[in-house]
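Intended use. Records like the one below are meant for learning the mapping from a protein sequence to its folded structure. Do not use them to infer anything beyond what is encoded.
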Amino acid sequence: MDKKITELDAVVTPTDADLLTTVTNLSTTPANEKITWTVAKAFLKTYFDGLYADVLGADDNYVTDAEKIVIGNTSGENTGDQDLSTLATLAGTETLTNKRITERVKTFTSDATPDVNADDYDAVTITAQAVAITDVNMSGTPTNFQKLIFRIKDSGAAKSLTFGSDFEAKGVALPDTTVASKVMTLGFIYDTVSSKWGLVALSQEK
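Structure written out for the chain above:
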């Protein structure tokens, strides 16, 4: 039974196979015809792509050239007008001023064979050594003249210290014991010739 358009059921989400009615040849011999939703979508896309092409950057998926600058900005402010030439680069040679470098500290309470990765830490603190240290296991890929600081305190009684084959005396003898309840601070510099951490400074709390 024929129905008015206003009497038809509403379609919330059309499918590609759904049909739309259209009237052609309005100026001559009007005729009722049909098109699929697939055809209608393709026509509309072509129409709107051409309509907005002039205000879009090439191949930008509806992002303007001005918006591309903002999105691509790496300064964190996303205003698109920063002078990025003043920023430090990963591989460039720059002088940093008024910058603080926070040391990466590995902390042990007590460990007979502490493991330290020189790629991850610049300093080691041992706060209450309760057993003898028989070896300090170093790992990583240290660079020439890289610095490493140890701060060692025992748990109240002196403990023997053996740093192991990764270390050597470099002007200062390696200590072989702690002083009970006193902090010992040791400064090492890596030597790529000997592939060892050389002790260059030692300070013992009195």
